[in-house]
Amino acid sequence: MEELLRILKPGGVLVFNDWHLIDVKPHRVFGEVLGKYRSKKPSPQLRRERSALAIMESFHHSLNFDAQKQMVYKAGFRETRIANRKYQIRLPSPGVFVKMRLSRYAVGREMSEMTSNQRMAFSSELNERLRVFVSRHNFIFDWNLFYIRAKKPRRIA
Length: 157
What we know:
Blueprint: H1 2-7, E1 13-18, H2 25-37, H3 44-61, H4 65-75, E2 78-91, H5 94-102, H6 105-112, H7 116-130, E3 134-135, E4 138-151
Antiparallel strand pairs: 1-4, 2-4, 3-4
């Protein structure tokens, strides 16, 4: 935040948004099903990746609205505001959602270390659980985001 403040021109505005995938229902379902079927004996590489992701996510979850607003303020930004927005995501099918999720490197690594039976069971359960998001032949879900907007003072005290 200090570096963003430094490079922003006086009176400039910083705006960023944040979300947690675990708070988006189909992403949570994907994570739950993946957790159920992922390898119980991961390779050393996958074990390191899981550990790194867990550290990143625990840090990210600790940064709620107030913590992020405070971080921005402590860096020297002023006129800090938070706005919440809910977006409805509409995809043509659950398959498009699954393909998007499977394209992530970490998920690909998890899939590569599953047995073929685990992959089939994962796919079957995932497809079944994602059906609740299908309406009128579309895959629909809500995604809540919050935006932080803050200004760099014209003169820093």
